[in-house]
Design a protein that fits this description.
With 374 residues, this protein is α/β, with parallel strands linked by helices. The protein folds into two domains: 135 residues, Enolase-like, domain 1, CATH 3.30.390; 219 residues, TIM Barrel (Alpha-Beta Barrel), CATH 3.20.20.120. It is 36% helix and 20% strand. It has 14 helices and 13 strands. The chain has a seven-stranded parallel β-sheet. α1 crosses α4, α3 packs antiparallel against α4 and α6 crosses α7. The radius of gyration is 20 Å and the shape is globular. It starts with a strand and ends with a strand. It binds N-succinyl methionine and magnesium ion.
Length: 374
Amino acid sequence: MSISFVIHSLEIPLVRPFRTSFGSQSVRDVVLVEAVSDNGVSGWGECVTMAWPGYSAEYTRGAVNVMRDFLIPTLAPLVGESAADSTPAPDSVRAALAVMQGNPMAKSAVETALLDLWLKERNLSLGEFLGAVRDRVDCGVSVGIPSSIEDLIQEVGQYVEQGYRRIKLKVEPGWDLDALRAVRNEWPGVPLQVDANQAYRRSDAEHLARFDEFDLLLIEQPLPEDDILGHKLISSVVSTPICLDESILSVDSAEGAIEFGATTIVNIKPGRVGGFLTARDIHDLCVEKEIPVWCGGMLETGVGRAANIALAALPGFTLPGDTSASSRYYKEDVTEPFVLDNGQLAVPTGPGIGIEPIAANLAEMSTATERVDV
Ligand code: SMG
Ligand code: MG
């Protein structure tokens, strides 16, 4: 067979700026990968990179380049060997992409576009394929660093009213204890957690222990990505569970961090680990080790959100995810919006990821397209 890949670059304004310890953004620059088969069916995947290498080493322009110049061309023999209209099997795509180092977000976008196509050929939903056990998932919301405590209370108030089942505050040195105290005073019982995106250091252990009084579900990624020992040291001083995000890049890194005692809860993001197959494998490992998991978010459009919600429907996802409604991010999404219902989102049931961009929205939001045929 042959496949035409179209790399769509889009820009979508966020409803409010999203500031974290590594920077701020008010427009989401998104890359959607479309894989078009011989008979004109499209599969879709979203690349969750940020515009700059702040969350991790990957960034959007680099991801487009590596997809165009390396990842997609690497698949040419595999696609060429496949019979007409028979998309290569997901495992073989993952194995072919694995010859390239790193770049998990770019790999995930390419792998998911082909997985969507492969599932559509079988009339199977991503949820069924992954092993989903529920048709609705509990949703939390991630609250960026605002300019004042007043703005924080106002924003959190909106989310609580909308029914979100858990609130996550972004924190950094200088924006932590006062913010937590203010939210806890206002909502003593709300399920609450924090995410530092690597902003603290080992020497902050005593300071982080002061978070304990706020009865948090977890502290997410307080230290740098490569500091596994530091997370273990912190967890011997802090009672609140430590949850790794950026540090978990593969099944082996997850197993290492768990066995070593650096994490007792795991945030799973398909983009960060190179795709949904590996995300499912990490889920399976965590279930075996009795480590709770939850689904992270990267400000996805409906394309990435649909797939994340299917993943979050697996049995080990026992904590609410950063799988918020489309309106949390965008006035208008590139797909039909995901709408919160009683603090939950419905798992898509259609073939593949179960959703695709609305052509007019895609055209309006598009800033560039590049085509690569294999
Ligand atoms: O999609 O709701 C979302 C964002 C959730 O906080 C979120 N993501 O480290 O977990 C994280 C961050 C990474 C993206 S920040 C731009
Ligand atoms: Mg995080």
